[in-house]
Amino acid sequence: MWVSLHHNNMYLKFLISVILITLLSCSFSKKIKDGEMAYERKQYAVAVVFLENEYPDARNEATKGRKAYLLGQSYYKLQEYTQSVEWFEKAIKHDYGAEALGNFANVSRVLENYEAAISAYQLLKTSTGRNQEFDREILLCRQAIQNKQKKSEYRIEKLFENSSVSDYSPVIYEDDFLVFTSERSESTGKQIYNWTGEKFSDIFIIQKNGSEVKKFDSALNSENNDGTPWFSKDNERMYFTRCFSFGTGDDRCKVMFSRRLNEVWEEPKVLPFVDDKFTYGQPTLVENDSILVFVSDIEEPGGKTDLYYAELLADGTWSAPEKLPSSINTQGNEKFPTGDGDTLYFSSDYLPGFGGYDIFKTYLRKDFTWAPPYNLGYGINSGGDDFSYMVDYKAKTRSGIAEQGYFTSNRSGSGKDGIYKFGKLISVITKVPVDTIPTTETSPLVRSIFVSVRSFTPEFLIS
Length: 463
Fold this sequence. Notes:
Strand content: 25-35%
Helix content: 25-40%
Largest sheet: 5 strands, antiparallel
Shape: globular
CATH class of the largest domain: Mainly Beta
Number of helices: 10
């Protein structure tokens, strides 16, 4: 009896896998044949189905190690960090090498398993001789352990407790509404995005005090991935990201613009400075709406991302994009800027933090240079990815709370981004760090040494 049921379950699992592979891979003109091909095409939701079927049948240790490593990478891209670290561990056991060990360490940090990460980094030091690089990572892990023990400055609650999809990048609209990005089933079109295995994202709206979630506007949502909106102060101009999919596994993202006339949003257009050779997105406005800050890979197409800005000129045209200084842009990736007057919040995966992307704050000083960024601290930040910080100045007053707002995090390790509400406690006195990082451009080597030696003090890490 048990054997019969087990056989039926195995057959059902196999049948479901075949159906999923067929459905998820049919949108490409060239059919996906195996997990490696799906991974190379950035179809990570498809890749995990193939690879998990291929792994048990791999004939030797090298092949098993490769399958396990690709599963670790694919689950990481899907933000399924628990599964990711398990597959990297298997890849290490199959002797895949330092690459698997490094990724195991990095994902362990994301899961806030800092002791495991430290052990892995120490092994990497011994095996590779890259002492400075891994001493830096070990120091960050040790500081994260210390700073986790401090009393949190924030009260945190999740906005959509039961959401099974990614919800992210909230922005205040007309004081009473929250506009955000989501992969909800109501999204425009019928296609599945093979990176995530979910619908293509759209822009949604909800009342801050709670109401039914609705799509924002049919003129702005398309069958592509749409999201990360930002509004001018008068709510008459809107900027957002649209990622055009060409069936190659790579999406070309662009910053879009729409104007509201007589309560109707016009058909969005691509901003004129956008070049088809690069990817642009996640726009925000600072300095009285005269400066647009956004993310791009202009210096390294298809590679790391930095923050750029363009100025709205008196004649209504935009200046050519310029890169923000090296005090903000690092050797890593900077993403998800959000403006607040002359203050800029953004996320970095390189500046001192707890793992993944952490949220940092900077501001324009009187001499028009940017102040050194500082980490917003544990509670807002975590081992996972934390981004899209937004202060709500119109929020109802709450006892003991000095400041309220929203941000995004995947800290649960569930594989999905969620929107969180925060309240900063009145009893906490925020210490603004002394400007110790130079704002002039320096060489990557000098900057790396400077950051490694001088910047990783607990006082600077958490203000």
